[in-house]
Amino acid sequence: LQQIREQALKKLPPRARGLLDGAPFGDGDHTLALIDPDGAEEVGRLQENTADEVARAVESAARAFRVGTWSGGRISERAATLRRAAELIRRDGDEIAALDSLTTGLLWHGSTRRHAAAAADWFDYFADSIECEPETRFDDRPGIATRSYREPGGGRGALHALEHPLMAAGLKLSAALAMGNSVVVKPSELSPLGTGRLVELLHEAGLPVGVVQLVNGRGITTGAALAAHPDVGCISFTGGPQAGAAIAAAASARFAKVTMELGGKVREHRARRRSLRGRAGGSVVRAFGNSGQACLADRASWSRRRSPSGSSPIWSARTERFGSATLRSAGGARAAKLPRADGAGPFLLSRSPLGGAEILCGGKRAAGLQGFQSSRRLRW
Amino acid sequence: VKGNRLRVCRKRFSGPLVTVQVVADAEEAVAVANDTSSGLAAMSGVRTRRVPSQWRRGLRAGTVLVTTGMVRERGAPFGGFGASGVDREGGRWSLDFYSEAKAIVTRSLAGASIRKEQAA
Fold first, then answer.
1. A132 is a catalytic site residue
2. Does residue A360 sit in helix, strand or coil?
3. Do residues A16 and A44 make contact, with C-beta atoms less than 8 angstroms apart?
4. Can you tell me the ipTM of this complex?
5. Backbone angles phi, psi at A357, to 5 degrees
6. Alpha-carbon distance A245 to A170, whole Å?
7. H-helix or E-strand containing A234?
8. Is A261 in the active site?
9. In chain A, positions 253-272, which contact chain B (CB-CB < 8 Å)?
10. Tell me: the pLDDT tens digits for A139-168?
11. Interface check B103 vs A, CB under 8 A
12. What is the pLDDT of residues B73-101, one digit of tens each?
């Protein structure tokens, strides 16, 4: 594992850049630090793309859409390219996963490797879907036939955030490309590396030049420029509600379509007696799996039982054990969490009021760990 | 008139007004038709046996009417591209819009016992 990590680090260019028509681009003044939360060290720099550069990427994507090599091409050829992309993602899955682990603080084993596999599966899935996509016929009136089918929406923007960068990118890219769209993708500025590699692989798979573009940078600069560009017909966003509202407002001015996955706070209701004791393990895994960075992570657990007596030591013990197990399986201390503006994640609950809850364990920066890691905190 | 340069070709009028634009072929016709921010409907009056593929695939309009006036099937999607609107109404498109999709995921008891057998 250490080797894979070092190889990924070695391949990392001194400055990660966006891709315009498949070639690195971006000459703005602003660069951002790419931070490995495990040790809080800088592993590289990210070149932020300016609004002008975003406009160039969008216009090139829109041009590719109008030319129609991809958007107007044969469905079987489109499906074949998507399947080739899936194969390539599987071929390089370990490397992509390592790149993603570098800056997300997610475990390579059990998290990002699975995300890379999921990204490949999405490409296969939508390759199959478009080949089976039916045309609907309405023949209610004599002499008149009405037919309807789906047509690509045009230059499409895709913005996605930190949690599962690979899975989100895989889903959005595969579906949008399957329908013949051109796509401009902007990954989170905190974790853009895996997605960058994904875009390179799409070119290797034979996607016509211009159809997919990669821009990098912060939401308020690069993301805002993408959301506001008139040639972006649809926006698919995964991230927080505040950014989502800003994107929706920008899109509404020109009636662009938006789809948003804005995360949640999953409650788990345990009804059965003794279930706290018996199922503590499952809860702990759901809450802290993927380093706690999951839209579907348990954030609260309800129980009919009033008193935690008897079960809280089990919860604490399992939490600690799960934590140390993930640390071990990573071959080092990798269970980490980036401090994020929204304070999401179960490890850093300091911003949310405890409201009289009892802390079962954790919640402090763990002794002997570096970086942004803190020990797990569980509230009752 | 050639192309869409004149304001009269771009502005929306609510009233009886028609502009006639001269084009060389179907390809240019599609280019002129698409050279607008809106895209509710497009019509083709060309009398041919086969629907030219340019009409079918090339026109950026929610409804493409070929040698017919407005006909609206209740099950067909109605709405426009670009500034003509967002999403569609009619048929399942209306049902999609007025509902929230939900997934109910249940672990079946049969599945649990199968997994136990596999484990054993």
1. no
2. strand
3. yes
4. 0.73
5. -70, 155
6. 23
7. strand A234-238
8. yes
9. 254-257
10. 888 888 888 888 776 666 677 655 567 878
11. no
12. 888 999 998 888 888 998 888 888 888 88
Residue A31, strand partner residues: A47
Phi-psi region of A206 (alpha: psi -120 to 50; beta: other; left: phi over 0): left
Compute CA distances A238 → A178, A185, A258, A262, whole Å.
Answer: 19, 12, 11, 6
d(CA A94, CA A89): 9
CA–CA gap between residue A217 and residue A211 (Å, rounded) = 20
Q: How far is A256 from chain B (nearest CA, A)?
A: 7
Q: Give the distance from CA A201 to its chain's centroid.
A: 17
Long-range CB contacts (within 8 A, 24+) of A107-110: A107/A290, A107/A291, A107/A326, A107/A329, A107/A330, A107/A334, A107/A335, A108/A1, A108/A4, A108/A5, A108/A330, A108/A334, A109/A1, A109/A329, A109/A330, A110/A289, A110/A326, A110/A329
- The pair of three-digit structure tokens given for residue A86, joined into one six-digit string: 């899936």
Largest CA distance in chain A: 79
Segment (H or E) for A213: strand A212-214
Q: How far is A147 from chain B (nearest CA, A)?
A: 8
What type of residue sits at position B62?
A: G
